[in-house]
Specification:
- This protein is 41% helix and 16% strand.
- The mean pLDDT is 95.
- Bound molecules: adenosine-5'-diphosphate.
- Adenosine-5'-diphosphate (ADP) binds at residues 107-108, 170-171, 231-233, 236-237, 257, 259-260, 290-292, 294, 296, 315-317, 320, 334-335, 432.
Length: 579
């Protein structure tokens, strides 16, 4: 080789070494912002992006369906206040992930759905590309924000924008569109490095106006029957110590919404959960902390709310105020700042609630707890939700650090009221939409994020939406124990076929006596089939101690459970079904 040719070859090699591309810049930009995990499912055009993430020291958790990967990312976001990342292929993969993105936005969980997309020129002219879809516009109604990056040098700023949009203010889901050609674009490495952006103070504190704090305190001071309602916005805020101090210093009884359970231990003497209907109906001033007056709270009106009342509402989103009923004292800011401002204003002149109010609540609680204990202590055969949940409750009491995932109809309703939580952000459930299908996604997200065991308490119907992820749980050897309340059907398994001459079973029926435990055995996990509370206790204790993937098929009475659980009023009935 001549000296000049050798020099030229060296220069080319040097140039090659100093180039970067869209793939690398996406990974660099995520890492630059402390993001270390991607949940997703590979395929055209993002397989190499996932490979590269792994090569660069990030975790890539590969799923069997994008919806579950998206749910894992969303719950990771809720647990950490950092956006969870879900990576999918174009069109159908994107659409599968979009369900999770919409759910994250609805629940105010920060996540970013990153999807590869087909060639822009072809998509925009609708010329029929492989997996052609205008994903950016499809995502917009379901996301808090949606962006597309077209040039490699914009990757740094695009990812920064997505991160800030997901976590600042009211958190939510962000869609980020990455066209295939962007990933392959090359760029001078030095310029690429310079284009990265580290997001400074991604979720700035939002300090409440002092007059709004005073207005709230004045209202609280004058209350005869005050009540505090904690929502998952309060749990998300990670202001646990101040929230507890506010509750204990004021002595006001409180109710946790389902995902705020454990913010204070459910056994706390001021918890009014066991007298829920009574306090909602009787309170005269209710302070909402990170909770919306949506359907889960009967929109703040009607029979549930009984006596006229005034509301104080702490929320980061000003438009949440007066969304359903008039709010007498809005306090706009982040929960941490608002609660600490309220705490600072609580002085010696602030009396505790009257013994008449707290005494009446204690009386209701005692009565309801005694009644519940009697139901829980029965041992019917076959077992039912109550006897099975008594067993689960007692095992989980010994492991307050365990994450609990919960979905179903009756399985959700009964677990929420029977299984106590002791630590914040340990309960992940059907949430704002009351949906099914979050189970295995949330379980995987929680296990990967916390490194702690997860117990997923699932209705047999709910489990079906994400059941294939048992393979993912086994592949990554996650300490997830899934308990399936198996009553052979949706709601229950004993409905008749309304057309007995037709070939099919009832619309709510599943295969009778199904053995879901065999499913996990197919992937090397541990399966248990139990029919009594004692067997359930033994299996659950053993499975948690093993720290390995396990599934307990808990066969319960097929007549146990009511249609639609506690949401009977939301389910219109035709004359045929009523027969
Ligand atoms: P739940 O279902 O538990 O009642 P919601 O999801 O309905 O809770 O309400 C959560 C509320 O918390 C939302 O209105 C959201 O804007 C608010 N929120 C979320 N994060 C924060 C935060 N850091 N500070 C203040 N409010 C927050």
């Amino acid at each position: 080789m001549s000296a000049t040719l050798e020099q030229a070859t060296m220069n080319t090699a040097k140039e090659t070494l100093e180039m970067t591309d869209g793939f690398h810049l996406v990974i660099d930009a995520l890492k630059h912002n402390g993001i270390d995990t991607i949940f997703g499912l590979v395929g055209i055009p993002i397989t190499d992006l996932a490979r590269l993430a792994q090569a660069e020291g990030m975790r890539f958790i590969g799923f069997r369906h994008e919806q579950n990967a998206g749910n894992a990312a969303a719950i990771a976001g809720y647990m950490t206040q950092k956006p969870g990342i879900c990576l999918t292929v174009s069109a159908p993969g994107f659409l599968n992930g979009l369900t999770a993105l919409a759910n994250a936005t609805t629940n105010c969980f920060p996540m970013i759905l990153i999807s590869g997309s087909s060639e822009r020129e072809i998509v925009d002219l609708q010329q029929g590309d492989y997996e052609e879809m205008d994903q950016l516009n499809a995502a917009k109604p379901f996301a808090k924000a949606a962006y597309r990056i077209n040039k490699a040098e914009d990757i740094g700023i695009g990812i920064a924008r997505a991160i800030r949009a997901a976590v600042s203010g009211r958190p939510g889901g962000v869609y980020l569109d990455l066209p295939a050609q962007l990933l392959g674009q090359s760029l001078d490495a030095a310029r690429g490095k310079k284009s990265l952006v580290r997001v400074v103070d991604p979720a700035p504190r939002q300090i409440p106006a002092p007059d709004s704090v005073k207005r709230a305190l004045d209202l609280l001071k004058g209350a005869k029957r005050p009540l505090i309602l904690l929502g998952k916005g309060a749990a998300y805020a990670q202001a646990d110590a101040d929230i507890r101090a506010l509750i204990e210093k004021t002595g006001i009884p409180y109710l946790p919404m389902s995902m705020a359970k454990g913010l204070l231990p459910d056994t706390h003497p001021q918890s009014a959960s066991a007298a829920r209907s009574y306090v909602l109906a009787e309170a005269d001033v209710v302070m909402l902390i990170g909770a919306r007056l949506n359907w889960l709270l009967s929109h703040g009106k009607g029979k549930t709310w009984g006596a006229p009342k005034q509301f104080i509402q702490i929320d980061i989103a000003p438009t949440e105020i007066d969304s359903n009923v008039a709010i007498a004292a809005p306090v706009i800011g982040d929960v941490g700042s608002c609660v600490s401002a309220l705490l600072a204003g609580i002085n010696s002149g602030f009396g505790k609630p009257s013994a008449e109010w707290t005494g009446a609540i204690a009386e209701r609680k005692d009565k309801n707890l005694t009644k519940m204990a009697a139901t829980l202590n029965q041992n019917p055969s076959p077992m039912n939700y109550h006897s099975a949940l008594r067993a689960i409750r007692d095992v989980l009491k010994t492991r307050p650090d365990i994450n609990v995932v919960n979905e179903g109809a009756n399985a959700l309703d009964f677990t929420r009221s029977i299984v106590d939580m002791y630590q914040p952000r340990k309960r992940f459930d059907a949430g704002t939409w009351g949906i099914m299908g979050i189970g295995m996604g949330y379980a995987i997200g929680a296990a990967v994020t916390s490194g702690l065991p997860v117990v997923a308490i699932e209705g047999d119907s709910a489990f079906g939406f994400s059941g294939m992820e048992l393979e993912t749980i086994c592949r990554y050897r996650l300490p997830v124990v899934t308990v399936i309340f198996n009553n052979n059907g949706v709601y229950k398994g004993c409905d008749p076929n309304l057309n007995p001459k037709g070939p099919d079973v009832a619309v709510t029926a599943f295969v009778k006596g199904a053995r879901y435990d065999k499913m996990i055995e197919a992937f090397g996990g541990i399966g248990y089939n139990v029919t009594t509370p004692a067997e359930l206790t033994k299996a659950l204790t053993e499975a948690i101690a093993a720290g390995k993937p396990a599934l307990i098929n808990a066969a319960i009475d097929e007549a146990a459970g009511t249609e639609s659980g506690r949401l009977i009023n939301l389910n219109p009935k035709s004359a045929a079904a009523k027969k």
